[in-house]
Structures are given as structure tokens and as C-alpha cells.
Design brief:
- Helices cover 46% and strands 12% of the residues.
- The chain is α/β, with parallel strands linked by helices.
- The strands form 4 sheets. The chain has an 11-stranded mixed beta sheet, sandwiched between helices. It has a two-stranded antiparallel sheet with strand order 3-16.
- Helix 10 links the parallel strand 4 and strand 5.
């Protein structure tokens, strides 16, 4: 009986049969196809409407111009010598012939391996028909070969300067991800079979979702990555108890309620990035770094940046330091009576904090006693794929656009960050949402990722030019308050956390940046990436971290010598903090300390402003 059930189960899951590709109910399929066409009309209206009203103006020409210019430089190398071009074409044709001959042999020997297989971890081709069906197997292999061939053309173009090569490689990767056969119904066996099985109902649901997402993006496609309806700030996300104790036009300062009878004497001030929002550090009680720090006895204060608009267009880094960090330091002192704090900066918030430390050192301001930097760059030589978007031509174009509104729209930054991992953050959702017709699952991290922020003109342009483009902070040439600042003047202890798989602040970039400071830097590398490498609670027992050697020499040699510890780096950081100053005082239960009147419950009002 068990054998019979097993045989029947095998038949039920036999997805390589031609029967899976044959329409069973033509009438139902035709009805659904009509609904798809109707929903496509709604999607088209959602796209056209904002353009006709003048609400939306396309700016596709500028980035496409840069793509064409970049690829033309690659083509120039290969076409400048006929023999070179012929050899390149021959390599591609030869690879195609290998696939063809292998496919013929596999028809007679199903155990024979394919000529080309996806990289380990490439989940796009998991359906059995990508390997068992001769047509889809051939399609997959030719795609993989062509993608690699295109990438090799860029890599082997000897006359390219490094920036152009970097851009060309990035653009080739984006195009390769976009044209993958997995992204189209007719060439993806999984979607094809699902469309047949549901008589096209999946496409109806997907097209309706597409129209909704274009409408939500006011004429641009805003790909939904999670079921956002399941989250509400202050109720099931960003719920650590606290109060807004101070506010100005740029920031709200949140103080969190203590959880211990005594607390560390020195308060903790967190300066998060203003790209996205601070509650990445307070997603939910199980993941919250803020809650964990409170439980360790820290009196935690967080800067919550305003989601800027045209009113903030002229605010630059001087303003963000004065009205952000310095304003927060004043609030902390009034609320606790403590003049000195331990400070944390995350990503660009850490870059701003580092620049502020250099300014404070120049001014003789010692209010920050130690600094912790989460995945922060101060030296941008190895800054990764974001440098693709920063050169003279692109900055000039961006400056014209951003000065018209006074800010860069949040969707632009969100798109740029998603493109860095388009194979994970764009195309899987395009396939799942609009072709399979499936709603994405609730996921707090992706809810936060979609909660984007605008970038004020003066601030953003200052950042791109001084850091990514000209790397002035690392070379003591960034000017704040009328004079250059130098990180070599920063003598306080620094805990500099990198993440091994970080695509925004590469670990090597953080390592090299550690050498810019004038005091002792404790460099630690966590496992995973820009978010998971930081938000790694000890209770989860995930990943690992590298620590120990002094920051010197080559990054790879540092890693070879480093001690590997399983689990979270958080306790390691706590021990570092307490070693600097572990003295404690009775818990500060009155938020605001009596000198500042609480204005609102955490997470405050600024964080609720959505783009």
C-alpha cells in the first residue's frame, strides 16, 4: 500500500509532462485573459495619468544616456580591431555549440550533466523543468553563457578606466538580471504551468496588483516587497517604551524608559542614518538593539530625523551637526546631568558622527567620550557599487533635478539601493507579485526598507561630492564651519563594526577607514550584510564575528589572523563599553529629567511621515 501511494504521489508531482503545458478549459482561460487586458488598461491609466496632469515628469533619458555612453566605450575596444571582435564572437558561438551538442547527448542519457549550471545559491532555476525539459534547459544554459560572456567583455576591455569598468560591470549585471528567462511567463516553466493550471487567474491577480503598485508610486512602479498592512508604528513595530523629550525643525530626540534598577552613568546617544528611518534599530522586541541596550543598563537616546521637504533644502552638514548631534547632546545633558556620552552612528549617520567628531576635536569639544560606528564609511575608495552613480556628469544632472524640488524624492534612493541587489530585491518580487499573482508575506525588515525618506538638496549634494566623489573626509579636506576637519584629530576610543557581506559599506572599506582616526580603533567584522550583520540579537545565535588584531596592513591578512566567535557581536561591544567606564547610577526613571517636558510617546511624530 505504501509503495502504491508513493507511486501515485510521484505521478501527482510529475511536472515534466507535456500535459502541464496544455490548456484544459479554453473558455475559463479566455475569460481570464479578457480580465488581464482590462486590468492592463487600468495599469496603463495609472502610468499615463500623472504624466498627462504634469504631476510626474520622466527622467529616464539621463540614466539611459549614461548607460549608452558607458557601453559605447566597451564596444569601442572590441570593435577597434576586427580580429578581437571575431575572437569574442567565436567564443560565444563555441559555447552555444557546446550546449547544443550536450543537449543532444542528454536526450539519450538523462544522467548526463548539463554543459553549464547556475552558480550555487542561484535560486531562479529551482523548478525541475529547468533541468529536465530540453527546451527550458537549453534556454537557461544559453542565458547563463551569454551573461557571463557579456561580463567578460567588460572585464577584458583593457583600455577602460576603473570607474567606467565598474559602471559597465554594474549595468551588465542589471541587464542580465532583467532579461533572465525567469522573468517572463512564456519562458519560465514554473509560471507557464501555474498559468495553465489556474486558467490564467494568476495573471489576473498579478495585473491588478501591478496597477495598484503603479498608482501607489504616482506613475512609477513601486514594487511591493511585503504585506505592509500588517504593521503599525508604535503598535507592533518600534514599540520600545520611551518619550520624545526635545524637538526642532530637523530632529526629535527620544529617551527610552529604563528596564534595570541601576544604569550606566554615561548615557548612550544613537545617530541613525537619515536615509530610511531609525526604527531599523527597534523593529520588534526580539530584534531591537534599542531594547537590548536598555536591558543592559544603558540610558538610550535616539535622534529621529525629519523626513525633509522643500523647507529643508538648504540644510547642509553643518546644520545636521548643530541641529542634530549638538542639539541631541544638549538634550541628553539636560535629561541626565551628564556632559559626556557614548555615541553610536549607523551608516551615513556614522559618517556624519565621524565628521562631527573631527569638528569637535578642532573646537576642543569633548562631550562624546567614545564612538561606535555601525557599517560606516569614512574612506570611500572601496565604497562599492554606489560609486557607479557618482561622477561629474551624473552629479551635474542630479544637481539640476534636486535643486528644482529642493530634495531628492525618496523613491529614487529606494530604487538605487534596490538595484544594488536587484536579483534579491526587485526581480523575485516582480515574478511573485505580477506573474504568480501572489501577495508578498508580512516582513518587518522589508516594511522598513519600503519606508523611504527624501534627501534635502544641500545635505545630499554635500555628501555625494565630499565623500563618494572626492573622498575629502578621508584626506582632511572636508570643510565644516569654514575650515577643513581631520579624522586624525579624533583620539577617543572607537568601535568600528563592519559586515562581511555588506554591499553598501564593504568590509574592506570600513577597515581602511579605520586607519584615518588618530586614536585606538577596535575593528570588528560581523557575519552577513548591512542590516543582518548589525541587527543580530544574541538570543538568535546566528552568524559570527571576527575580532582581535590591530588595524594595520592588508584587510585579508587581518581576517586571517582574527579570532572567530560564533553568534552575535553585541555582548563583545557591551564588554568594550563597560571596560571604558562601567560605573553605574540609579535608573533615570523620569524621562526628560524634570528639565525637559515629554512631548510625545516614542517613536514620535517625525518617523510617521511617509513618502
Amino acid at each position: 500500500m505504501a509503495e502504491k501511494k508513493e507511486a501515485n504521489a510521484g505521478k501527482a508531482v510529475d511536472r515534466t509532462s507535456i500535459d502541464a503545458y496544455v490548456i484544459k478549459d479554453p473558455e475559463a482561460f479566455a475569460r481570464n485573459l479578457a480580465q488581464v487586458i482590462e486590468a492592463a488598461g487600468h495599469a496603463a491609466s495609472a502610468w499615463i495619468g500623472p504624466r498627462e496632469s504634469g504631476e510626474h515628469t520622466d527622467s529616464v533619458a539621463e540614466p539611459m544616456t549614461d548607460v549608452v555612453k558607458t557601453f559605447s566605450k566597451v564596444s569601442e575596444y572590441w570593435l577597434s580591431e576586427p580580429q578581437r571582435a571575431i575572437e569574442a564572437q567565436t567564443r560565444l558561438f563555441s559555447a552555444y555549440m557546446d550546449i547544443w551538442s550536450n543537449s543532444i547527448r542528454r536526450l539519450g542519457d538523462t544522467d548526463l550533466a548539463e554543459a553549464v549550471e547556475p552558480d550555487r545559491g542561484d535560486r531562479r532555476f529551482s523548478d525541475v523543468d529547468w533541468k529536465e525539459n530540453a527546451f527550458f534547459s537549453f534556454l537557461k544554459q544559453t542565458y547563463l553563457v551569454t551573461s557571463k560572456w557579456a561580463a567578460d567583455l567588460v572585464e577584458n576591455a583593457e583600455t577602460l578606466d576603473e570607474h567606467t569598468r565598474h559602471k559597465a560591470s554594474f549595468y551588465v549585471k542589471q541587464l542580465s538580471n532583467a532579461v533572465s528567462p525567469t522573468n517572463f511567463m512564456i519562458s519560465n516553466p514554473e509560471i507557464f504551468k501555474e498559468t495553465i493550471a489556474s486558467n490564467g487567474a494568476n495573471l489576473v491577480a498579478g495585473m491588478k496588483m501591478l496597477a495598484e503598485d503603479i498608482e501607489a508610486g504616482h506613475g512609477d512602479l513601486k514594487v511591493r516587497q511585503a504585506d505592509y498592512s500588517k504593521f503599525k508604528l508604535g503598535e507592533n513595530i518600534a514599540v520600545t517604551p520611551g518619550k520624545v523629550i526635545a524637538r526642532n525643525e530637523l530632529v526629535e530626540i527620544i529617551q527610552y524608559a529604563p528596564e534595570t534598577e541601576d544604569v550606566l552613568k554615561r548615557p548612550l546617544l544613537i545617530c541613525p542614518p537619515w536615509i530610511n528611518k531609525f526604527y531599523i534599530l527597534d523593529l520588534n522586541p526580539d530584534k531591537s538593539f534599542v531594547r537590548w541596550a536598555v536591558e543592559q543598563g544603558h540610558t538610550v537616546f535616539v535622534i529621529s530625523w525629519v523626513n525633509p521637504d522643500e523647507r529643508h533644502a538648504k540644510l547642509d552638514w553643518n546644520d545636521y551637526i548643530d541641529q542634530g548631534i549638538s542639539f541631541a547632546l544638549d538634550a541628553v545633558e539636560k535629561a541626565t546631568g551628564e556632559k559626556q556620552v557614548n555615541a553610536i552612528g549607523y551608516c551615513v549617520g556614522g559618517t556624519l558622527l565621524s565628521a562631527a567628531l573631527a569638528l569637535f576635536a578642532r573646537e576642543g569639544n569633548d562631550r562624546i567620550a567614545s564612538a561606535t560606528l555601525f557599517t560606516t564609511q569614512v574612506d570611500f575608495v572601496n565604497a562599492g557599487d554606489l560609486k557607479v552613480f557618482v561622477d561629474d556628469d551624473q552629479l551635474e544632472t542630479l544637481e539640476k533635478q534636486i535643486r528644482q524640488q529642493g530634495y531628492l524624492d525618496g523613491s529614487k534612493m529606494a530604487t538605487a539601493f534596490n538595484l544594488l541587489r536587484s536579483g534579491d530585491l526587485i526581480w523575485p518580487y516582480v515574478v511573485n507579485n505580477y506573474m504568480k499573482g501572489k501577495e508578498p508575506m508580512p516582513f518587518d525588515l522589508l516594511y522598513w526598507n519600503a519606508d523611504s525618506t527624501r534627501m534635502p538638496a544641500a545635505n545630499h549634494l554635500f555628501y555625494l561630492r565630499n565623500c563618494y566623489h572626492e573622498n575629502k573626509l578621508a584626506h582632511a579636506k572636508m570643510e565644516l564651519k569654514g575650515a577643513p576637519v581631520s579624522l586624525a584629530d579624533v583620539k577617543i576610543p572607537i568601535y568600528n563594526l563592519a559586515a562581511k557581506e555588506d554591499h553598501i559599506a564593504p568590509a574592506i572599506s570600513v577597515f581602511e577607514g579605520s586607519k584615518c582616526f588618530g586614536g585606538k580603533v577596535t575593528y570588528v567584522m560581523g557575519g552577513s550584510g548591512h542590516i543582518a550583520g548589525v541587527i543580530n540579537p544574541p538570543a538568535k545565535k546566528k552568524y559570527q564575528f571576527w575580532s582581535g588584531p590591530k588595524v594595520a596592513g592588508e584587510f585579508n591578512k587581518w581576517v586571517e589572523k582574527a579570532k572567530v566567535t560564533e553568534g552575535s557581536w553585541w555582548p563583545h561591544w557591551q564588554a568594550w563599553i563597560e571596560k571604558l567606564d562601567g560605573s553605574r547610577v540609579p535608573a533615570r526613571k523620569k524621562l526628560g529629567g524634570g528639565k525637559l517636558k515629554p512631548l510625545d510617546d516614542a517613536p514620535g511624530t517625525f518617523v510617521r511621515e511617509r513618502v
